[in-house]
Write a structure and sequence with these properties.
Chain B: Belongs to the CcmC/CycZ/HelC family. Chain B: It comes from Antarctobacter heliothermus. The complex is a heterodimer of chains A (about 220) and B (about 250). Chain A is mainly alpha-helical and about 220 residues long. Chain A is built from 9 helices and no strands. Chain A starts with a helix and ends with a helix. In chain B, helix 2 packs antiparallel against helix 3. About 5% of the residues of chain B have low confidence. The chains are: A mainly alpha (about 220), B mainly alpha (about 250). At the A-B interface, helix 8 and helix 9 of A face helix 4 and helix 5 of B.
């Protein structure tokens, strides 16, 4: 499993440039927002947590098809399936690799981008915490979507349609934590819910993803 | 005699052929009675005026939008566990109907909301959840369309249906948390209201009977449409198989 993880990480960093792409996309979305809504700092402060969450979510979504597509094309996914590793393990490792290459940079970059959007003072900590808790859920749910559409030619758009509704609870609680944090309100309840979703999907969804992948590899 | 006999497509088609005219007839009678009674023979509400009558479409459609997904969930489970093709096809047949019901619920709600709440749309928990449910229906149907192999499509969509159910329920509570509602609570059937323990607002008896009848009409309509569409799916698949065999020969 560790070998698979290091292999995926190395591939992501050295080949294809998928590593920085999500991050660059996040940056661009954040920069575009003031153009669209106007540069009033008060307004930006108000919408900053939500915008940053949406940006992170979309950046995550864009990189999902890379989880299985390349391995599917060159056949290494079939090799992995016949390896003595359970499919659930493969799926979990893939999700973890996706999180390390996409989610983690987003989490680290979000406070910096918060400066651009004039995020309120206490918001930085809670934005960081909510993204750190929420992006693993995004990766795990996204892995399920990627596994569903792995064999399809026009999979990308379909995957967005399938995955985005599944992202709704994570987005609501995550953005709620960030918003309440920025406004200095109590964050405990949405934070607990967000953590619950994250741990819940990490524990359960790999089974669904593995089942789906097995069907697709049949 | 067990329910699994209907897993045989021939048996299913034969039974559905017998049932379909009767169910359709009953649905038409219930809908016509319920809607005409509701629209023309109930008094106008003293505050809502005639807009109250949209309830005869709104409530049953919303109810069926959720129940259709439940039916798909059960059919998907049957497909996963026992692999009866009729069950998978029934789930596929129900999805567009459920989606249309969701749209009817949303549209009638908007038409009612404009004069009553002063807005077509509000980001209220129930409204938002219905919109998300609609997106789930869209994704489910799109996945069916996208995959060529029938069995793979049935497998993948049924797992999507299971996962989607969990997330639909989750969204329900997430959205509630996110925004306090404008949509009123259920005022039609409540255990407390029937036994008298609940003194909250309740739909008056004048409106209740036609609402019940049109609700039953919507259920029957759903059953009739699912039977019809499942038959169509079975026949379409059979004709495809025949064509393929022709080509092979």
């Amino acid at each position: 499993m560790i070998a698979l993880l290091t292999r995926d990480l190395r591939l992501a960093v050295r080949a294809g440039g998928g590593f920085g792409l999500g991050l660059a996309f996040f940056l661009i979305v954040t920069v575009l927002v003031p153009f669209a809504v106007g540069p009033q700092t008060g307004l930006l402060t108000q919408i900053a947590p939500g915008v940053l969450w949406i940006g992170a979510l979309l950046a995550c979504l864009l990189s999902l098809d890379r989880i299985f597509a390349l391995d599917w094309e060159d056949g290494s996914l079939d090799l992995l399936a016949t390896a003595p590793l359970p499919m659930e393990g493969i799926v979990s490792v893939k999700a973890l690799a996706h999180w390390i290459t996409t989610g983690l940079p987003l989490v680290l970059a979000a406070p910096l981008l918060g400066v651009l959007l004039n995020l309120a003072g206490p918001g930085y900590l809670w934005l960081f915490v909510s993204l750190a808790l929420g992006t693993p859920a995004l990766s795990v749910i996204g892995t399920f979507g990627a596994a569903l559409t792995v064999g399809l030619k026009r999979g990308g758009l379909l995957m967005s349609l399938l995955v985005l509704p599944l992202y709704v609870p994570t987005l609501i609680f995550g953005a709620e934590v960030a918003r309440r944090g920025a406004e200095g309100l109590a964050v405990q309840t949405p934070l607990l819910m967000l953590a619950g979703i994250s741990f819940g999907v990490t524990a359960l969804l790999p089974f669904a993803s593995a089942a789906v992948l097995r069907i697709n590899l049949r | 005699m067990s329910i699994w006999e209907y897993a045989n497509p021939v048996k299913f088609i034969r039974t559905a052929d017998v049932l379909l005219p009767w169910v359709t007839l009953a649905a038409v009678i219930c809908l016509v009675t319920g809607l005409i009674w509701g629209f023309f023979f109930t008094p106008e509400d003293y505050r809502q005026g005639s807009t109250v009558k949209i309830i005869y479409l709104h409530v049953p459609a919303a109810m069926m939008a959720i129940n259709a997904w439940m039916m798909m969930l059960i059919a998907s489970l049957i497909w996963i566990v026992r692999r009866h093709h009729v069950s998978a096809l029934a789930a596929r047949a129900a999805a567009p109907i459920g989606a249309v019901m969701t749209v009817i619920g949303l549209v009638t709600g908007a038409i009612w909301g404009q004069p009553m709440w002063g807005t077509w749309w509000a980001w209220d928990p129930r409204l938002t959840v219905f919109l998300i449910l609609f997106l789930f229906y869209l994704g489910y149907m799109a996945l069916w369309e996208a995959i060529e192999d029938d069995d793979t499509a049935a497998d993948l969509t049924s797992i999507l249906c299971l996962v989607g159910s969990v997330f639909a329920v989750l969204s329900r509570y997430a959205v509630q948390f996110w925004n306090q509602g404008l949509h009123q609570g259920s005022s039609v059937l409540r255990a407390g209201a029937v036994t008298g323990a609940d003194t909250g607002e309740k739909v008056s008896n004048v409106y209740f009977m036609p609402l019940m009848i049109s609700g039953i009409g919507f259920v029957l309509l759903f059953v009739a449409l699912v039977l019809l569409r499942t038959q169509t799916e079975i026949r379409a698949r059979r004709s495809r198989a025949l064509l393929a065999r022709e080509r092979m020969a």
